[in-house]
Design a protein that fits this description.
Helix content of chain A: 25-40%
CATH class of chain B: Alpha Beta
Largest interface: A-B, 17 and 11 residues
Strand content of chain A: 5-15%
Number of strands of chain A: 10
CATH topology of chain A: TIM Barrel
CATH architecture of chain A: Alpha-Beta Barrel
Number of domains of chain A: 1
Strand order of the largest sheet of chain B: 7-6-5-4-3-2-1-8
Order of helices and strands of chain A: EEEHHEHEHEHEHEHEHHHEH
Order of helices and strands of chain B: EHHEHEHEHEHEHHEHEH
Structural class of chain B: alpha/beta
Distance between the termini of chain A: 31 Å
Number of helices of chain B: 10
Distance between the termini of chain B: 18 Å
CATH superfamily of chain A: Dihydropteroate synthase-like
Oligomer: heterodimer
Helix content of chain B: 40-55%
Strand content of chain B: 5-15%
CATH architecture of chain B: Alpha-Beta Barrel
CATH topology of chain B: TIM Barrel
Chain lengths: ~325, ~260
């Protein structure tokens, strides 16, 4: 008997969420098939790739990044250069320096950085908070006001601060928000339920269901994303139909494969190459498992992953 | 497997306020009942207009439009002995949220309702009975096959036949309850969808007893593969049981607030 191919498309679909305004605005989600299964049905919006800078601009200890940003003097210069990476759909500003356990930059200092960045680029903006939920609540409240009308995505709110972030950035300032859970399907759904019960519409938030650098318990990430997309599509679970947003670089730039210098372990070879390899392999795996958007720091990673997406979708 | 489907049974012309609303085509009492049931978690709403011999088509079209316009094209189950009324209802029915359900065909006088469903690309509730309650499961299965052959012969998908095992009343037919459960298992093993009038089970028992009997029966039936029921979604105990069963069967992903969804 001949093989009969039955396209596996679903009547349910992932919500479509728009980030940014004007011609360069992007849409996340919208598909009614499994991740990258463009052979089952047309994928409404290809997954998107973001270029990331931090409140300090970029990591000057990475030679190839320093080479890419050569000549950039201000944060505005760096933002423009990052937004211009071939394959980048949006710009993410990671305010890691706001962490009270780190540089503890004030809300005003961060606002100054963000406002300079926002003035310099016209691509969609994503604000990534620091590791401290309380500080992010303060930070997002100020920045959501500052960036009104720009339809910015705030990453992330968690169980401890979703009420404030959803009420402020989400409801009061009409920005987009991201609900973050740590590789826990039940909590991922619960957080979406709680946010929806606050009155946010389904097309105003995305979720980060958690991630890990490849090799660091990544199989849990895959099974979580798999189960989430299965519930969203096969079971038409409206509380899991949010697009998945994954800040890959925050994971990969903190593992030893990326941090250790070539002087310390010569047999591992170039640190820059390793950093790109970690970003590319993690991002590719996230996209295959279900991410609708990934964030990357290195121009080479952005170029590689965007080419991969273009070839598959 | 998807979530269990509750067809809300409370728009029924046996209720005096609904009967009067249908006679005079007054929207409010019907809209109120519809809203209560949808808020409580019903997926489909049954619209029982009774025999409606005089103005069936007109009444059904009015009811379909009224409910779908007010509740975002809620999917409906058209319930009357008047075939012309069902056809008329389907003509104005919006399929955005699901196919219409024809309620119902049996292997006896009402078998032509299968033809009606087939001709109109509708789902059909297929009672596994001919005249009255079947005496055993062999008889149920015989009628099930008859109905299936008829539907398939007319080009229907098997999934659009929702077989009704006929729930029977505990007070009087207590010894037949396990037969019903066993038959549901047989239907599920063959991959068929199923539904039925759940509240028959607790008929004539005291009001405060009905929820626990209905809830227990539905939990046991879901375990055996029942996919839907015509029931009262405003019964909190019943709905909490159904939602919990959906979790335990892995038809719906658990979240702490699952009872509120």
């Amino acid at each position: 008997m001949g093989f009969k191919r039955v396209p596996q498309k679903y009547s349910a679909s992932i919500n479509e969420v728009t980030i940014g305004v004007g011609e360069k605005a992007i849409k996340l989600g919208g598909e009614n098939v499994k991740p990258l299964y463009s052979f089952d049905a047309e994928i409404a919006n290809a997954p998107k790739v973001g270029a990331e800078i931090t409140d300090e601009g970029y990591d000057r200890t990475v030679a190839s990044l320093a080479a890419y940003y050569e000549g950039c003097e201000t944060i505005a210069d760096i933002a423009k250069k990052a937004a211009a990476m071939p394959g980048a759909d949006f710009l993410a500003v990671n305010l890691e320096g706001a962490d009270p356990n780190g540089a503890n930059k004030s809300v005003e200092e961060c606002a100054a950085v963000v406002s300079e960045v926002a003035g310099a680029v016209d691509v969609p903006l994503v604000i990534i908070g620091c590791k401290n939920a309380d500080k992010n609540t303060e930070l997002f409240n100020k920045l959501a006001d500052l960036l009104q009308g720009k339809n910015v995505l705030f990453v992330s709110c968690k169980e401890e601060n979703y009420k404030n972030v959803a009420a402020s950035a989400g409801l009061a300032y009409n920005q987009k928000i991201c609900a973050e859970s740590a590789v826990d399907i039940n909590l991922a759904k619960q957080l979406n339920v709680l946010i929806s019960q606050m009155g946010l519409k389904p097309d105003t938030y995305v979720m980060n269901v958690g991630s890990a650098a490849a090799g660091y318990g990544f199989e849990y990430v895959v099974s979580t994303m798999d189960r989430v997309k299965d519930a969203a599509l096969a079971q038409n679970d409206a509380m899991l139909q949010m697009p998945i947003f994954t800040p890959v670089s925050s994971e990969t730039w903190s593992v030893k494969e990326t941090i250790v210098t070539e002087e310390d372990i010569p047999e591992w070879g170039s640190r820059d190459d390793r950093a790109v390899q970690m970003e590319v392999s993690t991002a590719a795996a996230c996209l295959a498992a279900g991410s609708n958007a990934v964030v990357l720091r290195h121009p080479e990673s952005v170029a590689t992953i965007s080419k991969m997406i273009a070839a598959l979708v | 497997m998807g979530k269990f489907i509750v067809i809300g049974e409370r728009i029924h012309c046996i209720s005096p306020s609904i009967r009067q609303a249908m006679e005079t085509m007054t929207p409010d009492p019907i809209l109120k009942r519809a809203k209560e049931q949808l808020d409580a978690g019903a997926t489909y709403l049954d619209v029982n207009i009774g025999p409606a011999e005089k103005n069936g088509p007109e009444l059904m079209q009015w009811a379909v439009k009224l409910l779908q316009e007010n509740f975002d094209n809620v999917p409906l189950c058209l319930d009357t002995a008047n075939q012309k009324a069902i056809e008329a209802g389907i003509q104005v029915y919006n399929r955005e949220k699901g196919k219409p359900i024809v309620n119902s065909a049996d292997a006896g006088d009402r078998i032509s309702n299968i033809d009606l469903a087939a001709a109109n690309d509708a789902i059909c509730i297929a009672l596994c009975s001919k005249a009255g309650v079947p005496s055993d499961n062999d008889e149920r299965m015989m009628y099930c096959q008859e109905l299936l052959e008829r539907g398939m012969g007319l080009g229907m998908e098997a999934e659009d036949l929702w077989f009704d095992p006929l729930f029977v009343v505990i007070k009087g037919m207590q010894d037949k309850q396990r037969d019903v459960l066993e038959f549901i298992k047989q239907l599920a093993d063959m991959g068929f969808n199923s539904t039925g009038g759940l509240s028959n089970v607790s008929n004539m028992t005291p009001k405060h007893i009905r929820p626990i009997l209905d809830a227990t029966m539905v939990a046991m039936a879901i375990n055996n593969g029942l996919t839907s029921a015509i029931a009262n979604p405003c019964d909190v105990r019943l709905m909490e049981t159904i939602k919990s069963a959906d979790i335990i069967m892995n038809h719906s992903l658990y979240a702490d607030s699952f009872l509120e969804l």
